[in-house]
Design brief:
With about 250 residues, the chain is of the alpha/beta class. Helix content is about 40%, strand content about 15%. Bound molecules: farnesyl diphosphate. Farnesyl diphosphate (FPP) binds near residues 29, 32, 91 and 95.
Length: about 250
């Protein structure tokens, strides 16, 4: 098999020269365990998790990280018990009401990645309003992954390219990494430099699988509701000490 015609997508080195990552992505895990350790309902953990979101946005801005992607609700989370799904969507609804204005005032641009059509009309409108209201902001690009799953995202991209090929709009030999990346929710965005997962679990759980091909991974032993600016700064310091080679030999 010859793949000579296929362009190889060279990952763009996005981290800034001082070692600050351009794009940090976070798998926010451990809300349930945080609540259980206190004898509280899981909703209490998710509420505290929402406060940690705000702290993390501020920490990212303080550190001059320009892209932050947060995994707030996975495609698989729909399979949780109905009352927990309602708690999470309810929290999202109230978050949209209470936080967007402040995020806008801070200069945060909000974008949603994921299958937003799975949410009800009220939430979909809230998400669209948040994106529209903040579209002119440039201080921090905040992606919120909602009903997001990386395999579904890649499948969707593959289907769109297959349809374009069938319609004669693209030659199959022209389907390269750049063409596929352009069909992802993250089209036009830099790949994550650093992916953090809290709670001690060491998995990617279907998060940004394509985009994280060369990301540094960090698994922290803190539960998400306890995550704070000091944890964020420590992760950035550890990242700055890592050598990223993007598959090349040390030179
Ligand atoms: C993982 O903890 C966290 C989630 C499934 C949801 C993340 C939600 C938030 C951080 C708060 C809501 C944020 C917004 C923007 C509305 P888990 O429940 O899997 O914890 P466990 O593994 O300890 O059970």
């Amino acid at each position: 098999m010859s793949i000579t015609k296929t362009q190889t997508h060279t990952p763009i080195k996005t981290a800034s020269p001082d070692g600050t990552p351009t794009h940090v992505a976070v798998i926010m895990d451990g809300n349930g365990r945080w609540a259980a350790a206190r004898g509280l309902p899981r909703l209490a953990g998710h509420r505290e998790g929402a406060s940690a979101v705000r702290r993390t946005v501020e920490a990212a801005m303080h550190s001059h990280v320009s892209w932050l992607t947060l995994y707030a609700f996975s495609s698989e989370n729909w399979r949780r018990p109905q009352d927990e799904v309602s708690d999470l969507t309810g929290l999202l609804r109230s978050y949209l009401r209470s936080e967007i204005k402040e995020l806008n005032d801070l200069g945060v641009r909000i974008r949603i990645i994921g299958e937003r059509e799975r949410f009800d009309a009220g939430i979909r409108k809230g998400l669209e309003d948040a994106e529209r209201a903040t579209a002119g902001n440039t201080l921090l690009n905040l992606n919120v992954a909602l009903s997001y799953g990386a395999r579904a995202e890649i499948l969707h991209a593959a289907r769109r390219l297959a349809a374009a090929s069938q319609a004669g709009q693209i030659n199959s030999a022209e389907i390269d990494e750049t063409a596929l990346a352009a069909e992802l929710f993250t089209a036009g965005m830099p790949d994550p430099d650093l992916v953090i997962r809290t709670s001690g679990e060491q998995r990617l759980s279907n998060f940004l699988l394509w985009q994280s091909a060369y990301a540094e991974l960090m698994f922290l032993d803190v539960l998400w509701p306890d995550f704070n600016a000091a944890h964020f700064a420590a992760a950035l310091a550890a990242y700055a000490g890592r050598e990223r080679r993007f598959g090349a030999r040390p030179g």
